Amino acid sequence: MTKRTAAVRASGLVKRYGAGDSRVAALAGVDVEFRRGEFTAIMGPSGSGKSTLMHCVAGLEQVDEGQVWLGDTELTGLRDDVLTELRRDRIGFVFQAFNLLPALTALENITLPLELAGRKPAPDALTEVVDAMGLHDRLSHRPSQLSGGQQQRVAAARALITRPDVVFADEPTGALDSASSAELLGFLRRSVDGLGQTVVMVTHEPSAAGWSDRVLFLQDGQLVDELDAPTPDRVLERMKSFERTAV
Ligand SMILES: Nc1ncnc2c1ncn2[C@@H]1O[C@H](COP(=O)(O)OP(=O)(O)OP(=O)(O)O)[C@@H](O)[C@H]1O
């Protein structure tokens, strides 16, 4: 069996907020690898550092200590302009609040990252994501004319259109009903199985984590456990065991 290589890895991550007595270590020494072609979920209680970890490994926030690599490129220490370009070209993002541009159509929103990079969409790449998302008859609609589920599928298509090294999704189903959530997660799952996409998702929901290959659990800014081949029931059990041990 070949060991999958890391799409993203980080070592010794420390991130602190605030000063004096109110100083908080949101990340207190995290070593982590997100393997290529794998769907990883990050879970943990509120305030455990999930979003901070995602923002730090995605180069959206500076770390106080430690290093982050995207493939062979070390992100920590890069100049802001270099980092911005690298994020645009090599990382896709899906946020809870869709973050679509209201004046653009669905199609324009999807192809925006390519426009910004001065690239044309490969016809098959565009067809592939539009097909997978079931968005054919919505391409000329603006976000306000789409349901929440459709808007999030546009956001996911936009994240995937550049075939990024990794897609980071922060609570992508947080604002969706259960049917739209399942549709979106099924799409992310297929992008991993069919296209070899790497996906990292922060979620509170065991049902969402059940779509992933591996769940990492954070507590007080540290990785405390992981679960392979998760099912919602096993995720829930594991979360309950943390609640019991937390003081
Ligand atoms: N910009 C900030 N300024 C000050 N403290 C912050 C900031 N961002 C996060 N924190 C603190 O860092 C800790 C980790 O926050 P983070 O948002 O990463 O947790 P989380 O697990 O994603 O939480 P949630 O599930 O509630 O979104 C918390 O104690 C939080 O209050």
TrEMBL record:
Keyword Mitochondrion: no
Species, as recorded: Saccharopolyspora antimicrobica
Entry-linked SMART domains: AAA
Keywords on record: ATP-binding, Nucleotide-binding, Transport
Record InterPro entries: AAA+_ATPase (IPR003593), ABC_transporter-like_ATP-bd (IPR003439), ABC_transpr_LolD-like (IPR015854), MacB-like_ATP-bd (IPR017911), P-loop_NTPase (IPR027417)
MF (Gene Ontology): ATP binding
Protein name: ABC transport system ATP-binding protein
Record bears the keyword Secreted: no
Xref: Gene3D superfamilies: P-loop containing nucleotide triphosphate hydrolases
Stretches assigned to the ABC transporter domain: 8-245
Pfam families: ABC_tran
